[in-house]
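Hello,

I think I submitted the zinc ion job twice by accident. Can you confirm which output corresponds to this input? Input:
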Amino acid sequence: MTVREFQGRGLTHSHGLFIMKPQDTPSNEQEVDKIIWAFYPDPEEFPELFNLVRTLMVHGPCDDSSDCHKKQGKCKHGFPFEFRDYTDITGKRPLYRRPNDGRGFYKNFKGKLISMDNRWVVPYNPVILLRYRGHVNIMYSPSTSACKYFYGYLLKGSYGNRVNVSIVQKNQNRPPGEPYDHDEVKEFKEMKHMGAYEAHYYIMAYSQAHMYPTVQVLPVYEEFKQTIIYVEGQEEVALERHEGSKLTAWFELNQRRGIHRGKLYTDVVKYYKYENNIWRPSNTHTIGRLSPLAATAFNSEPYHLRLLLCNRTDVTSFQDLRTVNGVVHETYKGSCAALNLIEDEGEIRLLMDELAFEQFPRLFRKTFAILLSNVNPINPGALWDEYKERLAEDYLHQIDDDEDLAFQLALRDILEVLQEFGKSLEDYNLPALDGIILTRHNRVIEDEPQQGALTMNEADALVAQLNEDQRTFFNAVINSVENRSNEKYFFLTGPGGTGKTFTYNLLIDYLLSRGR
Ligand SMILES: [Zn+2]
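Support: Only one job matched these inputs. Its output is below.
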């Protein structure tokens, strides 16, 4: 799969993900070493390659003032790496051979000479580098667990060419106490600039992305609940044109060809091509995927319908899906139960495996919490233990030295969703939070620049400055925090410049000053 992007200055670059044939896939360190180098070649033996590496494949040097340090306080690409004599592909990320052989050059960086040795070399492939003579970074991914990140990264779109424009009115002469008179929405525009290269690509209708094999999304819907897209006023035409779907065509295929019995809905794309509402024989290289469900649908019929479609091969109608051993069940759930599909935790594990593979950790945690509150698995604690590495994957990646903290942060996120359903971690035998990172409020405070805590008197003095509306809101929240009321959700609205942020900050300061 390849995707083309245009950077801020208009030049094009592309990302590619290549899945190699089994016989070509490097399976050990020696084979990786044949493909990927992260060191300078011998300058006498390969002078041209040496120069290309030196000019194109060296990162930095970088320090805390560099862009790559901004987010994590260290180089997000991991530079400089340690010297090492052997490649190691057993860990989460491959560590390439970077011998301390004295090769490299010196570079003046902020008045200091830095040794740009093998620790700074961006992994590359010598043949590709010699052929294309441009920056081509090659990475080896030993497992499919990182797959979603590659696809996510490839498909994120380019943000480099978005421009946010905000028009600020000169309104400084307003009398004190008067709110700003402006429309924040109107004054903010999101625009996109496009360089000559990108414009050319669009005009010539060159393809922007390429993917192989093709993935076909197969619709999952209950009878008579098919999604149909129509132009207003042309509903009838749309209805006629969409009288069938890939799903109903699969029913028909099963009816038409007895020999086909035994193929799953998702497998049908391997042998058939969907054309004019009919699956016709073809050997296209395509992968079939059922359309994902909205996360709230876990215990409802669409979920069980989907479960049936994952397991049944011999059905010719919606009713047939609900029929088991001649008995027509009223619901898909009933049919699943008759087939023992929802009897044990196997089903939940299948689902968790699928989610862990497909969803980014943040969404996975949310889905997990919704799953807990809706499906009530028998042993949620065991599920947590089994999947916690995947549930906390992003935190584990960010905090490499404190696994427990990463798990705690993941649990905090799960708790936030559970609370929306009036549940807690204890309800599901999940580990408790250790008190340091309890609620979202703490996150607000973590993210706030530390302003130095106010004393109680200072906070009170600021409270005295609140106007009537602000005070009503302030008191309502404080009453809730002090358990004098049961209200838990508050909504504050008002035009820009009327002091909403001031009120929020004061709430935080006030509570901090009282040790909350
Ligand atoms: Zn860096």
